[in-house]
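Human: Note token order:
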Amino acid sequence: MRIAVIDPFSGASGDMLLAALVDVGLAVEELSGQLAATLDLEGYRIVAEPVVRRGLRGTQVRILVEEPQPARDWNDLRALLASSALPPRVRQRALAVFQRLAEAEAHVHGVPVEQVHFHEVGAVDSIVDIVGVIWGFELLGVEEIACGPLPMSRGWVETAHGRLPVPAPATAALLASAAVPTVPIDIDAELVTPTGAALLVTLARFQWPPFRPERVGYGFGARELPWPNALRLWLGEASVVSPHPDEAELLLQTNLDDMNPQFVEPLVDRLFAAGALDVYLTPIVMKRSRPAVEVSVICRAADRPALERVLFEHSTTFGVRAVPIERTKLDRVLVPIATRWGEVTVKLKVFGGRVVDAVPEYRDCLAIHQRTGLPLWEIWHDARRLAEEWIGQRMTRDERKP
């Protein structure tokens, strides 16, 4: 799974995020062409330039506004995005980012969300930054975004409302709404902007994940600081190996050639009760051509002692093999489907944020079969037919949570 990991060691803004994406391979020409073709916004150019600051090479992106732009409030922005030809996922995420901004502004100023008037954020450069960042992640095939703690600076910032403390009130409200982890930094400067905060709060999870980095880029801001004023972004593959030993997974195996086969079923039941993630049996032939069965148990490392105890106490084995394993696990979501005969739970298979299959739960279908006497296959196929409308649908990270 392609993952982007953000290190905001000098803060975060929309232009820094966009510049970092360009630095790891996003083609400015492709992004500009896509935006021009799908978003009713004119009079600007995206310019990306390589820069070297304090010995560090990276990219700086500027949005050059070439003609006067109208003032836009939340309703204007919502209408602009809703009527656009942006891909549905990009449009929905952009609307979500601006919704978070509108809610933060409404909280700060004590007005209803519908009365929020954007000032700096409603400008064309901020719109291009936000939509460009979202589409940039999409074009690079990023499925998950993670971010480290944000630096908490101090000082003052000039806004349309006058001089305000850093972090700007809207930024502070956004960070508080998501309980974003922060680290203090001793400087008088605005390091995290409302645009940067809204993008990260909406798109990223603030937990440093295990991953295998493949590319790294630096997106520079315009401000000069005592250190490189950049945001670092890694692209890589999410690692399936947990950094925490208790969260690692094992494959436990043992061979049984002298056990009554009738005793295997209760053994499997006890293994599941003790925490096994999966149990399967494989027919094998052992020494002296004796038929046997290999019992395989996939489990969390923390459950190993309990599962080995079950194997030793409830089977004839004298030893258990343990092998560390890596698994790539897709998201699964359980949804209820109302059939003609009652409710059936359907398991949605989610890959890359999209539902790719929908499978009725056997036990629910079996319960209806036992109650009605109808053919089991007829019940299963009816539930499957009703569940097909989910296939192809996008699912956000929150929707995928069990």
About this structure: The chain has three domains: 2-238, 245-325, 331-400.
